[in-house]
Amino acid sequence: MFDKVLIANRGEIALRIHRACREMGIQTVAVHSTADTDAMHVRLADFAVCIGPPPARDSYLNIPAILSAATITGVDAIHPGYGFLSENARFAEACDAHGFTFIGPTAEHIRMMGDKIVAKQTAKELGLPLVPGSPGPVTSVEEIIEIGKKIGFPVLVKAVAGGGGRGMKVIESPDKANEQFSMARVEAKAAFGNDAMYLEKYLGKPRHIEIQVLGDGKGAGVHLGERDCSLQRRHQKVLEEAPSPALNAEQRGRIGELAAAAVRKLKYRGAGTMEFLFQDGEFYFIEMNTRLQVEHPITEAVTGIDLVREQIRIAAGGDLGFKQEDVKITGHANECRINAENSETFVPCPGKITDYHSPGGLGVRVDSGLYTGYVMPPYYDSMVAKLIVSGSTRNECLMRLRRSLEEFVIGGIDTTIALQQRIIHQQEFIDGDYDIHWLEKLVGLKK
Fold first, then answer.
1. Are 203 and 411 in contact (CB under 8 A)?
2. Which of 174, 230, 387, 428 has the fewest CB atoms within 10 Å, counting from its CB?
3. Is the previous residue joined to 243 through a cis bond, with omega within 30 degrees of 0?
4. pLDDT tens per residue across span 95-150
5. Would residue 185 show up in a list of annotated catalytic residues for this protein?
6. Catalytic one among 10, 185, 291, 337?
7. What is the 3-state secondary structure (H, E, C) of 125-187?
8. Residue 146: which residues within 8 A CB-CB, separation 6 or more?
9. How many angstroms from the chain centroid is the CA of residue 224?
């Protein structure tokens, strides 16, 4: 097992990794920008190293600075968390080249799944169902129109190197193809430095279902059930639940085993998530995230399995330690992402936390680095807390979620607590009757 781990991230996920390490008897090294000197994970870590100024490119994305910090503090391994360098194959290779274990999958698998075209081709070879679309990148409006006529409009043009909804546009009809294709390419180029695009059939009312998987890199692999991530705004997840209220036992078992079998065939190492669209009883693979997900705590809540601990154990060379039949899904869990944004306008609101009180009680967990007096910097993602609530049934979970949101106090800044309260009181949400477009209609956004 490792003696010392460097956490190459910030915020609540850095704190989450620190806690797992300390429970395993592992020392931690926090790296931070000058803007995060007073961050909670920096204050709690055994060692802390400043790696640059606030812009992420000069600190949390600065590979030489992170590797230098790892060298001077003598760590064994580096955990990338999510975001930043977590799906950067070059970073994984650099860690290995400098003698540090990258707590995550191999660079080969990161690269394979990071290219959306290659990922889809790989998924097809692994027997996963795909959304109808282009076999590879599309390079012209004429090609889009030709494919669109075959699979039916509307279609969705997506960035090969994309994520988070950037470089993604819906093309309603052939006469809209030129405009939307051009806009998507410009957006993709600005966001990823790559304007390669591919095409998929646009599904009208799908659910976003993701399967949590674990592999030991030696051919063993399991799934830990699904999460329903359909409640999204501008392709960003807002509230998640596990298990999905949209699936029955047969559907759940079928897609779970397909995902686990793919992990075993790939000899995938560590935690990962296979994401699907689900409509009319059918699943369609869209991508694989080769990292820990923001919403991993709800899987932990219904399985009792510590995903970060498993990541660390597997990276240290450990076997998976359990079989599929050992994984039991019990009860229900929801996660609300609390952002420092106005609940009506969604304008970011960084600033000083004047009051902070997190909810508690049975089945309530809050992952957050906030504390009274902390000054939230304006340079990074606006998520400031995750409220994770579990119960023996979905109804019990939702009642506990209502109570917990009422207790949650974050003073001094605007937050999306009010938005979460609005969502969970809607009858469609209570009934589990929603799709990936439902939330944007609720808050008055156009498609």
1. no
2. 428
3. yes
4. 999 999 999 999 999 999 998 889 989 999 999 999 889 988 999 999 999 999 99
5. no
6. 291
7. HCCCCECCECCCCECCHHHHHHHHHHHCCCEEEEEEEEECCEEEEEECCHHHHHHHHHHHHHH
8. none
9. 15
| Two tokens, residue 33 | 């920008």
The residue written with tokens 């340079």 in the block is 379
Q: Which two tokens stand for residue 242?
A: 């596990």
As given in the structure block, the two tokens for residue 12 are 């609540």
Angle (CA) 186 62 315, round 5°: 105
Domain 132-201 classified CATH 3.90.180.10? no
Q: What is the pLDDT of residues 308-329, one digit of tens each?
A: 999 999 999 999 989 999 999 9
Q: How far is CA 172 from the centre of its chain?
A: 28
Q: Around Cβ 39, how many Cβ atoms within 10 Å?
A: 25
- Closest to 168 (Cα-Cα) out of 144, 151, 152, 185: 185
Place of tokens 């359909």: 230
**What's the length of the chain?**
447
DSSP 348-395: B--EE--EEE---STTEEEEE---TT-EE-SSS--EEEEEEEEESSHH
Return the residue matching tokens 């060379």: 317
pTM of the full structure: 0.90
CATH of 207-442, one of 3.40.190.80, 3.30.470.20, 3.30.2380.10, 1.20.1600.10: 3.30.470.20
